[in-house]
C-alpha cells in the first residue's frame, strides 16, 4: 500500500534512506559520501522545505520504501527515492514513482549521481530521459540548492518537457 508519511514515520524514513544509500559508498565521489548519508537534521530540514514523503508499506504497515516529492515553481522534484536494501528489485520503487507521476500534471525532474548507473537505468525504465549538460546545469541551479561539486557529478532526468 502507498500512503503519505507523517511525523511518526520520520525514524523509518531516516532508516530507509541511510540503509539504501549505503549503495553509494565507493561509487559516488568520496567527498560527497558521509555516514549517515542523510543526518536527521537534514531530513527534518527537507521536510520543513516542502518535501512530502510517500511510503510503500508491507502487509504489517511497515515502511519498505519512501519517495519524496517537492513542488518547485512549474515542476515537481522527486527527492530521496529509497527502498530498504532487503526489499530491492521487488517493484516498490516503480510503484512509488508511478503513483507520484499519476498525481502530477506537470513535468517531474529527478537529480541523481552520474555514477549511480542503476538509478539512472531505473528512471529511464520508468519513462524519464537524461537532460543534456548545459540544460542540466541550468536546472540544478534553478530548482535545487546543491554545491557546485554536486552539480558537476550529477545528472538530471525528466519525464516530459
From TrEMBL:
Stored SUPFAM superfamilies: Acyl-CoA N-acyltransferases (Nat)
GO MF term set: acyltransferase activity, transferring groups other than amino-acyl groups
Residue spans crossing the bilayer: none
Official protein name in the record: GNAT family N-acetyltransferase
Residue span(s) of domain N-acetyltransferase: 1-149
Native organism: Paenibacillus lutrae
Superkingdom of source: Bacteria
UniProt keywords, alphabetically: Transferase
